[in-house]
Amino acid sequence: MASDFDTVRIPANLAEQGILPSHCSRHGRPAVRRADFTLQSKVRLKGSRTRRVGVFGAVGMAERLDQHARKVRVTQVKGWPLCDVCARTRTRWLTVAAVLFFGGLLVFAGSLVAGILTEAGTVRWLAGVALAGFVVAVLAAFPFSRGSMSRVIGASTAPEGDAVLVENPSAPFRAELRH
Ligand SMILES: [Zn+2]
Prior knowledge:
By secondary structure, this protein is an alpha+beta fold. It contains seven helices and five strands, in the order βαβαβααααββα. Helices cover 52% and strands 17% of the residues. The mean pLDDT is 89. Bound molecules: zinc ion (ZN). Zinc ion binds next to helix 3.
């Protein structure tokens, strides 16, 4: 399969045993800590492009979810090297996600409580605030995804589940793989 990315394959059993370089895959800086995590494969779903609505749409969605569950492969990565930049990037995105999520929920719950305590005239206004809080909490999914291990290190499990694919790995990371 031709690809614009320079992808390096690491056998899944090596990643699961923690036989990995001591430099980070993205920046090539020395690891300040090692991370254990579950790395999923990216799943490309096959399905009709035509939009189905109503009951058929729901059935189609269920089929796709089932397809996804059966096709996704995972690797239990042990001791992946993370440099200071990787660690900071991850912390930053996860912090933003947590602030949005809990902040949104707080606004949502707060406006519901305020709606109960105040008189009818302000309820519509508060409903708008509650909705905004809810939307913000849902939007937390984006920074959360940016802070995911897969995005931070630029790797995923191969569709066959036999390897970890690293996109454009740094030179020091790559050099250590050859040993
Ligand atoms: Zn790094």
